[in-house]
Description:
The chain is of the alpha/beta class and 312 residues long.
Amino acid sequence: MESINKNNIEAYKSLDLLAKQVVEGFITGLHKSPFHGFSVEFAEHRLYNSGESTRNIDWKLYGRTDKLFVKRYEEETNLRCQLVIDNSSSMYFPTEHTPTFEHPNKITFAVYATAVLVELLKKQRDAFGLTIFSDKIDTQTEIRSSTMHQKYMYQLLEPLLQPYNPDKNTKRQTSIAEPLHLMAEKMKRRSLVVIFTDGWVDTEEQDKVFDALRHLKHCKHEVILFHIFDKDKELNLNYNNKPYHFIDMETNISLKVQPNEVSKQYRELILQQTEQIKRHAIQYNIDYIPVDINLGFNQVLQPYLLKRSKLY
């Protein structure tokens, strides 16, 4: 049985409470959507037995057949989901404020989104595991469905919520390909792999990432790739019209530039890179979801439920 660090109980309660609030609010909103009733799935009809509850009788079928049938629902869906978080240094952008649930940076958004999905998976009696990586796999758990495992997941996620300190945090570069290859080889049963990453890698590494994603698909896993970014700062380069000193959070390479002078070329390059990721995702039948950290968690939950509905 996995042990829980007592020093992290308060942090666990915070993640647990926030995840529950988001999921409950989201489910309430689903009552007017096509996802209403997603947490239990129709399995089959069976003949009604005299004396049992009439709550699940299919009256429309009775009208057609003149026989009483009961709808049976399957709650034990047995979906297996591996949640994968990029913990490289660039995920701690932006750094100008202390990240919170309401105003996250990329890593805290990924952590809260993962906690929310864990709550949803647990609610649906599905199994879940966690992988945290940077230039290597830092943490990897088994895929389980117990309450104790859920608490253990929150314990592992909690340290990632600490504010970024450039003097103390070790520079961690992004190396997505190798962790994904290792996961593909280790996971023997078909699973849904949900990846949270900012995806900012050079051209050579990008080709390796696509090869690793293809490896996951070859092993019959389904993949959702959540591409996380701060749209205002990272995609649109929306800064004041004055010189800035930009420092790469993973390599410490620095560049002095006035954003307005390079914004057009910059946006064109970013668009080219994201379009390339989209094309490869479509080619490999991978769900590519761009996620702006400023727009809330529904942009994660809706695509997850769409993918889930296709699988089960």
